[in-house]
Structures are given as structure tokens and as C-alpha cells.
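[Meeting: bench + compute handoff]

Bench side (C.D.) handed over the final construct sequence. Compute side (W.E.) agreed to return the predicted structure before the next meeting so the bench team could plan truncations. Sequence as handed over:
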Amino acid sequence: MRRVRIAALLLLGVLVGGTLGYMIIERWSLLDSAYMTVITVATVGFREVHTLSDAGQWFTIALIFAGVGGIAYSIGTIAEFMVEGPLIELLEGRRMAKRIGELSGHHVVVGMGRVGSVVCQTLASQGVTFVVVDQDDECIELAEEHGWLYLQGDATNEEVLEAAGVTRARGLVTALDTDADNLFVSLTARGMNPALYIVARSSTLASEGKILKAGADRVITPNVIGGRRMATSLLDPLVADYLDIVTHSDELEYRLETMSISADSRVVGQPIRDVRIRDVTGAFILAIADGESMDRNPSPTRVLCAGDRIVALGTRSQLDALAAML
């Protein structure tokens, strides 16, 4: 766009300069000077509107060279703009902005580095609609290759978050490189959408409390989680293998999900053992939250109530069967 503007200004400058030149040198009217300039620059070969003086002839020669050069540069620049990508990129950006503008209840991933790219891949594998926000050209190219919705810009800028649909989004992950940026994004996004669920990345444990105070609902410190996982692999490899199976195995496709018990469900008011969830669906109930507390190991006698939130483990089909039951 910058080169196109320069080409347009150059061509306009030649036309204005030629018109003023004839008005000053030949004392012609504005219309005659402009007409003479256009037919000279366009090299159409029409006759002069008036007889030229010697100075006017030399000026016309200079104007021809300037006009041919200006037109050649302008046409080349515009052709490059239309054929070699910038125009296509501009149109694609507008289409992307339109698609993002139509979203509601989606998720926003800020920062597509080592952590953010994994978040995006996981969301994509789950069929979740999300928008990537990043400044880096390579990250944007990667998002484009995967067919993800993306927005190139600085997420610490409120206008960029607005363009990503934060005010209409359901959740946001901020995984930028610095804790200060993640804190600022959390603070800004919380002010824009009080109902937004925000998960932020932290580089140190010392920053977790500050980011939580800024508005994040959860703060994840990858190096701490990684360190604990490595220790588990060292001390109890079998447990580590089990965790890999139930969370990352492509063969078994186990998932952890949360679902709520509706008021008209047949399980309301019954103990867990009587509804035989494991026998009927194949899914495991790992925890039950009732809004005030979480029962991390519910007993078979635990009575299920409307509004309880169930944390369950199972395959996709098992979890779908459990959701239908609840």
C-alpha cells in the first residue's frame, strides 16, 4: 500500500507540475495547460493547443520523459500490488476480519509460541472455534497453513483484543513470552468482558498471584508442571505412563471433561451406585462439584443433585453417553 500511494502521488505530481509549468512558461489557461499536460504525458500524439515557445518545447521534452517514467512506475507498482500478493493479502485480511466479527462464544489464544501453539493444536483437535492473536509473521503463516482464524497485532492493545472478539468470547488464553505482557492482557481483557474465562501463562511462581489479581481465572506455570511430571516419571514411571495414556493416547482417546446434571435428569436424587453410571456408559466419575466445594473422590453413596458438575474420564462415545444420561 505504501508503494501504491507513492506511485499515485508521483503521477499526480507530474500532472500538477506539468499544468503549472505551462501556465507559468506559456501563460496558458488552467484548462489548456491541464489538457496539454495530459496529452503529453499520455503520448497520444494530438497537436499542441497553442504554438510552443522554445522554453515550452524544452519543458515539453522534459515532461515527456517524466511522464513516461512516472506512468511506467505506477503501472508496474499497481500490477505488482494486484498480482504478487499485497492485494490478495489485503482482501484475505478483510475476509478474516469479517469471519472473526461474526463469532460469538469462541476462544482467543494470545501468543502462538511454544506454549500457545500446543494450545491451538489441542483446541483444533477438539473442534473448538478460536482466534489466534500474534505479531510474529512466522506464527501467522503457521496459523494460516493450519486454516485457523488469526489476527496479526499486539494483544496488549485494547483495539486488537476488540478486533479478536474478546467482548463476545467465552475464554482467553494468554501465552506471551513475558509475565508483564500476560498480566496486562489479563487486566485489559477482564475489563472488556467480566464474564470471560482467562487462563494465563506465568514464567515464575512469584508472578502467579499478581496475574490472578489482574483478572486471570487460572495461571499455569509450564516449567513447574514439567518439573513435577519429570519427577513423577522418575519416581513412579507406571503412573506417568498411565497419565500419558488417559490424556494423550491417540489409540484410546481418553478425555477428561466437565458436565452438569440438569434438573430433569433421571439421576437426580439417586446415589451414584444406583444409577450404575460405570456399567451403563463406561465413563468414570472422578469428582463432583456442587458450587461450594469439590468432592475429589465421591463415594458410591453420594447423592446426585441438579446443578452438580461432574468431572468424568472416558472416551468420546462414553462421555457422550454420560452427558445424555445427565
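W.E. noted at the follow-up: The mean pLDDT is 85. C.D. will use this when planning the next construct.
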